[in-house]
Structures are given as structure tokens and as C-alpha cells.
């Protein structure tokens, strides 16, 4: 009996690596710590009622962002470990197969569990406030999306202590990811972690598209929408067309691995290249999905801190829509070397070059917005300005990669690694940081410490260039990606430099954590709700916003409605006609979101280990939750009475409107 | 009261209170969901078309697929689409009993379709064509099976809607559910037409 348990445990838990034992201990300690603190301060009820079951878009947004920051830490630790190995390959800090796992999880965590939730966090916090709405179109679905993301993320992260991590790269190309060459459970974690959270992303895409189409304040036509909302519109549309492809691709890979089907196998008539086409039909739009909202953030911050209207509004909208359409026609540039012939490669090379044009238009628009503006430089603006050179260089190397014949040389080299990190960090991460700093006061009612923020900013930027510029050179010199050792001594110096840059970025992240920690205790309060003297509707209400957002829904006349309103008031005109306060209709909290997320987690875990006794009840639980919701949804609403709204408003605005 | 001329006053008052018609939102949301479902099926169709030659020396579709049973299935599903439409008409005339009867008929036709599909799958497996046989049969079973799973989910969904209508009567909420369900059912019908032509007819003819 004991031997059986021992044998099971040695297969079930990942054993043998001191790094992983260290991780085991820290996970157990952290969990015990959280349980202890919650129990000691009697916070379980508060956690459940106010946060876990909430359907309030602002709280869901905050939960997304918290999870994303934790995942940024995890993905960052992966990165630092890889760089440590590459600086001193002879020390064998990571064994080769451990290295394979780390580069796989680094990519997956950063895209699916860091960039996506940070993006959805910003969507949630900003979009309803920016368009003058009380919530998203489907608040319960929104909660469900979060819990699907969370279940998927937990499932995936569990893999490194239980069962073993996936190790076939962040897009899991078959046949390497098929059961023939990868019989362990790692790739199953990959499939179900991403599948479950991907369904959540798809639901969020639908939710935000309907919200933007149907719930704008009266008078806000599509061409009067703030630019961030436009970027969410473009990203959500792209999600709706791209994510179903991912769902099916992962389903087919699962069929191959679980049932022995022959979609992507080498035998039985299967075709691995089919997978690579399908995954990039989703994968290429995906990078635009994450970068478009960053463009939206920059459009907001640049106008606010240059004290000018955004230059070229219509061309910005047009550029974004064009980008999201063309993003579906460039996928094959990820594998020019597949051998699909000159004509196919030429088509995809040209579409890839074309997509640089609308992006260039946007860069010029931001520059012209700053031109002759009265620019101030708080942290959100600093990230905006740092983005421009980073993204221009990253974009130019992207155009170099798009030249199909040259790509045969660049393909899978460190030149490519440097390119996509430059656009993903310089574009997406810088953009989301700018957004976090910009809307932080709106979320929590206080500003983050600028002094520590500037330290973090400079360390991030210096570390970024020190890390990735050498990678272009070592890539041109022939170093390929996904190797844990190399023999060419010429590469040593550049790799050590790159590693130093990675450590500087790690230090920068610690500065940001310190910044958040310090600012919680000592901060400048946002008393007006408009701490940046900004232009759009979210800054017309108190910070943090009351649960119903707007006591009275505003009437919109122009693009920068709040800015115009402030101008009107400065001219001595009457403030916004304040309509009568009426009772506000609100959705009730729901426990079904977290419970259904839990069932998905169980189902996923069962399918990972081929435990049908767990997977089937898990899936049944999912269906029971769906029916429970269908039967109870019509009762899940209530009204906030007028007196309560008046009391809240008086308290938040200090009596004045 | 200043308001943009684009909005009728009714609409504006309704909108200004910040309350949106939930059925209106759900209907649009469901249309967008159907778009995502179209993409899913398109991906499966593309996979089927790419892999249709991959029989690996095993049985081909032309050898094993039988068109007669499929014609009956098609007839059942198309009729059920029609009866679900009749149910929606009855709903608009507030004839609750008629509506439920038509929904039940829709469900029975759907169940008949599923029975034939399972029968066909078992027959194919008996002939030695399984998910593991070759890429062709993998993509056949997953494509046709995904449609079948959709029909199954639709049946359970319809039962839950009927129970809710019996309990709560026809409200805006339950009416919205019937409308959305019938959209879904018509959609499955449309997908089946593509399945019939691309999988069965092109394979056998």
C-alpha cells in the first residue's frame, strides 16, 4: 500500500530538481500564509461576498490585474532563469529538458496569463466608464470569463509541481507535442490551461463588443467614442474571429493525444503543417489583439498630457480597423521556410509589409498630437514617449523579417527573438504600464508614487535595451532560439550583456512592487476624480467610482466631452444639465461564476491525467451550473433607491456636484 | 432639453436612465456568438478538406458512407427547423400550448436525427472506420460529431426552456430564450446543409 502511494507520488509530483523543491516549499508557505491572514482577520466572508462573487466590472478588472501581476512575476522568473543559463552555459544551471520547459512556460504565461488578463483588466475598468455606462452588457458572463481565465491559469501553473511542465514551445507544434514524442502530461496541461481560459477570452470579446455597440451614453456616436474604446472595439472584433480557430486547433490536438486521432501525426495521413497554419491563423491576430489596446492607451495619455486634442482621430480609427482586418492575412510569415512556394510567400510578405503602413500612420498621429502641446511628464506619459522609439525599431526589424528571402536567414534566430520582444515589451507592456499608471487613481482613489515610478521606468528602459540589442547581433551571427548551450565563444560576451539587461528589468519590476506597496500607505489622494486634468468621461465621476458609476447618464456632444464640459464651466456656463436621479437597476452577485470555474478546473485536471472519474463529474458540474444560471438569472437583479444614490454622491463629491 | 436629433425622444428617455433592454443585448450577443460558431465550423471544414485525401490506404468515404440514411436525417432536421419556426410564430400569438407542442415536435425530430447519426457512426465503426483509422476518418468524425454535439446540447437547452415556460409563463425573458434558441436551431440546420454537400455528397458522388 505504502509503496503504491510512493510510486504514485513520484510520478504525480515533479521530483528531483532542487529548484522545484524550493518552489514547492514557497507555494505551500504562501498558501498557508494567505489562509492564516484571511482566517485571523476573519476576512473569508468579505472575500467571498465583495470580490469572488462580484459581477461589478471594476472589481473584476482589479482581480484580472492582480492575477496578471502575479503571472508577470512568474513569467519574469522564467526569463531570468533562462538568461542565467545562457550567460554561463557551462555551469548547467538548468538541464536541457528543464530549459525546454522554462522557455515554453515563459511564452505561454506571458501571452495567455499576463498580457491577456492585464488587457481584460483595463477593458473592464475603463470601457463602461469611458462610454458612460453602468456596467458591461452581460455582467454575469463577465464574472464567468474571469473565472474561466483563472481556472485555466491555475491549471497551467500547477504543471510545474504536479505532473511536469509542457516543453514543446509556446505554440506546441506537433509532432513534437503529439503523444508519440511527448507522452507525459505536460502537453495536456498546455491544452486544457489554454482551452479553458481561451473560452473565457472569447466570451469577453462578445461581451465588450455588445457593450460598445449598445451601451454608449446618448449622443456618443461611434465617431465620438474615446480612442481607447475604439481600440477595445477593434481588439474584441479580432478576438471573435480569431479565438474560435484556437479553440478548434487545441480540440484537434487533444483528439490526437487523447483518442489517438490522426490530424497532426506523421502517420495515418495526418499533416503537422496543418496545425502550424491553424495556430498562426489565430496567433498572428492574437499579437494585434494585445497591441491594439496599448495603442488605445497611448492615444488617451498623449492627448491628456499634451493638453491637445488627439491628432487625426478618423485616421486613427481607420488605421486600427485596417490593422485588425489585415492581421488575418499575414499568418504564413511565421513559416516562410515551410516550402509553400514563391507565390504564397510573396503574398504573405506583401501583406506583412502593408500592415506597417497603418501602424506608421498612428505613430505620426501621436507625434503630431505632441507637436506644440504643453507636455507634462508624469509616469504614464513617460511610458508613452518611451514606447515610440522602441516600437519604431521593433517595427522596422519586423519589416526586415517580412522580406521572405531574407527571412530564411533570420528564421528562428535570436534576431527574431529580439524583434518580437521589442514589439511586445516596447508596445504591449509599456502600453499596459502607461494604462495602469493612468487609470490607477480611478481604480483605487490614489496616485502611485512618482519617484519610485520613475526609478522603475528608467531601469525598465535601460534593462530593455541592454537585454535585447545584443540579441539582434548574436542572432545575425547565427545563434538560434531554444538552445541552452552554445559552443561559439564569440557569443559569450553578447549573451552576458543580455543577461545583465534581464536582471536590470527584474530589478525594475521589484521597484514597481515597492512602488505599489509604498503608495498603499503613503499617497496623494485623488479627491476630484480628475487627477490628470483629463478629457474623457471616466474622469467626470469620483475615484474610485461608485458601484453604479454614473448617478445620471451624461449627454455627450463631442469627442472630448469632459474636457469640453470643463471649458464650458470655465466660461461660466451652467454645468451639465443634471437629469433627475432615478432608481438604478443593478445585477446581483453570483456564486455560479467561481463555482463553474472550479468545475472547469476539475474537468481539466481529470482530462490532463486521463482520469475520467474526475473529468466527467467536472463537466457535468459545468452543465448543472449553466442550467442553474438559466433558471435563476431573472431573479438576479435589484434596484438602488434614489435616497441611497443621493447619499453616496454627497459623500463622494463632498456635497458639491 | 438638449438632445441630439438622431435620437427619438422615446429612445432617449429610455436610454438616459441608463437602462438597456436586456433582450436586445442578448439577441445581439447571441448573433455574435453564432459568428464565433461559424468560425469554429469553418476551421473544421477547412481541416476536413485539407485532410480528405489522407485515408492512409484504409477505407474511403465513397466506400462506406451511405446516402440513403443521410437523406432521412436531412429531412428530419430541415423539418425540425420549420417546426421551431412555427413555435416562434405561436409564441408571438401568445398561444403557449401550441408553442410547447411545436417545440416538443422539434425536439423529437432532433432526437430522431441524433438516433440516425449514432446509428451511422456505429455502423462505420463496425466497418472498421474509427477516429484512429486515418486522418480522413478523424476529421470526418470530429466535424460531423461536433454538429451532433451541438444538436444534443440544443435538445437539453430546449427542455430547460420548456420547463421555465411552464413554470413562469411567457415573459419578455422566456420569450427571448425561445427566440435565441430558434436562431440556434436554424443555424444548426444551415451547418448541416454544408455538411451534407461537402462531406456526404462530394464524397459519394
Task: Give a verbal description of the structure.
- Chain B: This is Cytochrome (Ubi)quinol oxidase subunit III.
- Chain B: It comes from Saccharibacillus sacchari.
- Chain A: This is Cbb3-type cytochrome c oxidase subunit I.
- Chain A: It comes from Saccharibacillus sacchari.
- The complex is a heterodimer of chains A (657) and B (205).
- In chain A, the strands form two sheets. Chain A has a two-stranded antiparallel ribbon with strand order 1-2. A two-stranded antiparallel ribbon of chain A has the order 3-4.
- Chain A starts with a helix and ends in a 5-residue tail after the last helix.
- Chain A has helices at 2-12, 18-40, 44-52, 57-87, 96-130, 139-158, 186-214, 227-259, 272-306, 313-326, 342-370, 379-402, 404-410, 414-444, 450-476, 490-521, 561-570, 592-608, 612-632, 642-652, and strands spanning 446-447, 524-525, 584-587, 637-640.
- Helices cover 68% and strands 2% of the residues of chain A.
- The mean pLDDT of chain A is 94.
- Chain A is mainly α.
- Chain A has 20 helices and four strands.
- The relative contact order of chain A is 0.10.
- The longest helix of chain A is centred in the N-terminal third of the chain and has 35 residues, at 96-130.
- In chain A, helix 9 (272-306) runs parallel beside helix 11 and helix 12 packs parallel to helix 15 (450-476).
- Chain B has 205 residues and is mainly alpha-helical.
- Chain B contains seven helices and no strands.
- The N and C termini of chain B lie far apart (68 Å).
- Classes of the chains: A mainly alpha (657), B mainly alpha (205).
Describe the secondary-structure layout:
The complex is a heterodimer of chains A (657) and B (205).
Chain A: H1 2-12, H2 18-40, H3 44-52, H4 57-87, H5 96-130, H6 139-158, H7 186-214, H8 227-259, H9 272-306, H10 313-326, H11 342-370, H12 379-402, H13 404-410, H14 414-444, E1 446-447, H15 450-476, H16 490-521, E2 524-525, H17 561-570, E3 584-587, H18 592-608, H19 612-632, E4 637-640, H20 642-652
Antiparallel strand pairs in A: 1-2, 3-4
Helix pairs in contact in A: 4-5, 4-6, 4-16, 5-6, 5-7, 5-14, 6-7, 6-18, 7-8, 7-18, 8-9, 8-10, 9-11, 9-12, 9-14, 10-11, 11-12, 12-14, 12-15, 14-15, 15-16, 18-19
Chain B: H1 9-16, H2 22-51, H3 61-64, H4 67-92, H5 96-126, H6 135-168, H7 172-204
Helix pairs in contact in B: 2-6, 2-7, 4-5, 4-7, 5-6, 6-7
Amino acid at each position: 500500500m505504502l509503496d503504491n502511494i510512493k510510486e504514485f507520488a513520484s510520478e504525480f509530483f515533479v521530483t528531483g530538481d532542487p529548484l522545484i523543491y524550493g518552489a514547492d516549499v514557497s507555494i505551500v508557505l504562501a498558501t498557508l500564509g494567505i489562509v492564516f491572514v484571511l482566517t485571523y482577520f476573519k476576512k473569508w466572508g468579505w472575500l467571498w461576498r465583495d470580490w469572488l462573487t462580484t459581477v461589478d466590472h471594476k472589481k473584476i478588472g482589479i482581480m484580472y490585474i492582480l492575477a496578471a501581476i502575479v503571472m508577470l512575476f512568474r513569467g519574469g522568473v522564467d526569463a531570468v532563469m533562462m538568461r542565467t543559463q545562457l550567460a554561463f552555459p557551462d555551469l548547467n544551471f538548468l538541464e536541457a529538458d528543464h530549459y525546454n520547459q522554462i522557455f515554453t512556460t515563459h511564452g505561454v504565461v506571458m501571452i495567455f496569463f499576463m498580457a491577456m488578463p492585464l488587457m481584460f483588466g483595463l477593458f473592464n475598468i475603463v470601457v463602461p466608464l469611458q462610454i458612460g455606462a453602468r456596467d458591461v452588457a452581460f455582467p454575469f458572463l463577465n464574472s464567468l470569463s474571469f473565472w474561466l481565465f483563472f481556472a485555466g491559469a491555475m491549471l497551467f501553473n500547477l504543471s510545474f509541481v504536479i505532473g511536469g511542465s509542457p516543453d514543446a514551445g509556446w505554440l506546441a507544434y506537433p509532432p513534437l507535442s503529439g503523444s508519440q514524442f511527448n507522452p507525459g502530461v505536460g502537453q495536456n496541461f498546455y491544452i486544457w490551461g489554454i482551452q479553458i481560459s481561451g473560452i473565457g477570452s472569447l466570451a469577453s470579446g462578445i461581451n465588450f463588443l455588445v457593450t460598445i455597440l449598445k451601451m454608449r451614453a446618448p449622443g456618443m456616436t461611434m465617431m465620438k467614442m474615446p480612442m481607447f474604446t475604439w481600440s477595445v472595439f477593434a481588439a474584441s472584433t479580432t478576438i471573435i474571429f480569431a479565438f474560435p480557430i484556437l479553440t478548434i486547433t487545441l480540440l484537434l490536438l487533444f483528439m490526437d493525444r487523447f483518442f489517438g486521432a490522426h490530424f497532426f501525426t506523421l502517420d495515418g495521413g495526418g499533416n503537422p503543417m496543418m496545425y502550424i497554419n491553424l495556430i498562426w491563423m489565430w496567433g498572428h491576430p492574437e499579437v494585434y489583439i494585445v497591441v491594439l489596446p496599448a495603442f488605445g492607451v497611448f492615444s488617451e495619455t498623449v492627448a491628456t498630457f499634451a493638453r491637445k486634442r488627439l491628432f487625426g482621430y478618423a485616421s486613427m480609427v481607420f488605421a486600427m480597423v485596417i490593422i485588425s482586418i489585415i492581421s488575418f492575412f499575414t499568418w504564413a510569415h511565421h513559416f516562410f521556410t515551410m516550402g509553400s512556394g514563391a507565390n504564397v510567400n510573396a503574398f504573405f510578405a506583401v501583406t506583412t509589409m502593408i500592415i506597417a503602413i497603418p501602424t506608421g500612420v498612428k505613430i505620426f498621429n501621436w507625434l503630431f498630437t505632441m507637436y506644440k502641446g504643453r507636455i507634462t511628464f508624469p509616469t504614464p506619459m513617460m511610458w508613452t514617449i518611451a514606447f515610440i522609439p522602441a516600437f519604431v525599431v521593433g517595427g522596422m526589424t519586423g519589416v526586415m523579417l517580412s522580406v521572405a528571402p531574407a527571412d530564411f536567414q533570420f528564421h528562428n534566430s535570436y534576431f527574431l527573438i529580439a524583434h518580437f520582444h521589442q514589439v511586445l515589451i516596447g508596445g504591449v507592456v509599456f502600453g499596459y504600464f502607461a494604462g495602469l499608471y493612468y487609470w490607477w487613481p480611478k481604480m483605487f482613489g490614489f496616485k502611485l508614487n512618482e519617484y519610485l515610478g520613475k526609478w522603475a521606468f528608467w531601469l525598465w528602459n535601460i534593462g530593455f535595451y541592454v537585454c535585447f540589442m545584443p540579441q539582434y547581433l548574436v542572432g545575425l551571427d547565427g545563434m538560434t532560439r531554444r538552445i541552452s548551450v552554445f559552443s561559439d565563444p564569440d557569443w559569450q560576451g553578447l549573451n552576458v550583456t543580455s543577461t545583465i539587461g534581464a536582471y536590470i528589468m527584474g530589478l525594475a519590476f521589484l521597484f514597481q512592487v515597492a512602488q505599489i506597496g509604498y503608495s498603499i500607505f503613503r499617497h496623494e489622494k485623488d479627491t476630484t476624480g480628475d487627477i490628470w486634468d483629463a478629457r474623457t468621461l471616466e474622469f467626470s465621476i469620483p475615484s474610485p467610482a461608485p458601484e453604479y458609476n454614473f448617478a445620471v447618464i451624461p449627454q455627450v456632444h463631442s469627442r472630448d466631452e469632459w474636457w469640453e464640459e470643463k471649458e464650458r464651466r470655465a466660461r461660466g456656463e451652467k454645468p451639465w444639465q443634471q437629469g433627475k436621479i432615478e432608481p438604478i437597476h443593478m445585477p446581483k452577485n453570483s456564486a455560479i461564476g467561481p463555482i463553474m470555474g472550479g468545475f472547469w478546473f476539475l474537468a481539466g485536471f481529470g482530462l490532463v491525467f486521463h482520469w475520467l472519474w474526475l473529468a466527467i463529474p467536472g463537466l457535468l458540474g459545468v452543465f448543472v451550473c449553466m442550467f442553474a444560471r438559466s433558471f435563476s438569472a431573472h431573479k438576479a437583479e435589484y434596484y438602488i433607491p434614489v435616497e441611497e444614490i443621493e447619499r453616496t454622491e454627497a459623500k463622494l463629491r463632498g456635497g458639491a456636484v | 432639453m438638449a438632445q441630439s436629433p438622431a435620437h427619438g425622444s422615446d429612445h432617449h428617455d429610455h436610454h438616459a436612465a441608463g437602462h438597456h433592454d436586456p433582450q436586445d443585448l442578448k439577441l445581439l450577443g447571441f448573433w455574435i456568438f453564432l459568428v464565433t460558431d461559424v468560425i469554429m465550423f469553418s476551421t473544421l471544414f477547412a481541416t476536413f478538406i485539407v485532410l480528405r485525401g489522407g485515408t492512409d490506404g484504409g477505407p474511403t468515404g465513397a466506400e462506406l458512407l451511405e446516402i440513403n440514411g443521410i437523406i432521412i436525417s436531412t429531412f428530419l432536421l430541415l423539418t425540425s427547423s420549420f417546426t421551431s419556426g412555427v413555435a416562434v410564430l405561436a409564441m408571438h400569438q401568445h398561444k403557449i400550448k401550441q408553442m410547447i407542442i411545436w417545440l416538443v415536435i422539434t425536439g423529437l425530430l432532433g432526437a430522431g436525427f441524433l438516433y440516425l447519426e449514432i446509428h451511422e457512426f456505429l455502423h462505420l465503426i463496425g466497418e472498421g472506420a474509427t477516429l484512429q483509422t486515418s486522418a480522413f476518418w478523424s476529421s470526418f468524425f470530429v466535424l460531423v460529431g461536433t454538429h451532433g454535439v451541438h444538436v444534443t446540447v440544443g435538445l437539453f437547452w430546449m427542455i430547460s426552456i420548456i420547463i421555465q415556460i411552464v413554470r413562469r409563463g411567457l415573459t419578455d425573458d422566456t420569450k427571448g430564450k425561445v427566440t435565441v434558441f430558434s436562431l440556434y436551431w436554424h443555424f444548426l440546420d444551415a451547418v448541416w446543409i454544408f455538411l451534407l454537400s461537402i462531406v456526404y455528397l462530394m464524397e459519394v458522388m
